[in-house]
Write a structure and sequence with these properties.
Helices cover 34% and strands 31% of the residues. The protein is an alpha+beta fold and 247 residues long. It is globular and about 45 Å long.
Amino acid sequence: MGFSSLVVRHSTLLVNRKISRTINKFKHLFLSNQIHSPANEENNETQIAYMWGSDSNVLNTVSEHFKLYENFISESEEESLMKEIDPIFKRRRYEFDHWDGAIQGYKETEKADWNEENSKIIQRLQKLAFPTDCKTLKLVHVLDLSKTGYIKPHVDSIRFCGNIISGISLLSSSVLRLAMEDDKDKFVDVLLQRRSLYIMSGLVRYKFTHEILKESESFFKGVAVHRDRRVSVICRNEPEEENKDDV
């Protein structure tokens, strides 16, 4: 093979490599846009993986006032929280006569003091969920639902807490239903995955009922979400001054 032929062959290889790199570059950009572009979503329901709505309007409303952070805590942090919580509930039986009739099959307590490791988790929750100028309630609500326990549709009283509620889900995933208080047919189901953190505020806090579905009704987008014992660690902010007077 002559020298000129070698030069031509080498030049051809360089050109082919450049073409290949260019194709791969644009292929990557195309695939990225295809994955992330809203135009490729079938409807609004698929834009938020952890939510499903009865219609797009109610879904959009809820998504503005409800946030979920998956894997907010690690497995070891979950274990740490439960080591401190379990001794409180160990000798108690699950109850079925909650003071406002909203909860079935539950144990609950309010806890102000946590060990050092768990205090850091609570502080991390509060830092993410509440504005810096917002006063949070000192008592953290801990709610233990049995495998067959559930929470009926209700709106938390404005006399006892403010406009933000935030909680960590421990031990089990569950389905939270948020329904418009004046039109129960308009609702959003939220998949509360184990070790996730939710933040509920604004309209969702005041104009929507919230409930944890029974084990027999625990479905998300048609797929069963198997319930087990579920413990939630819940923080709230203080009620507005004008609402405190009604207590």
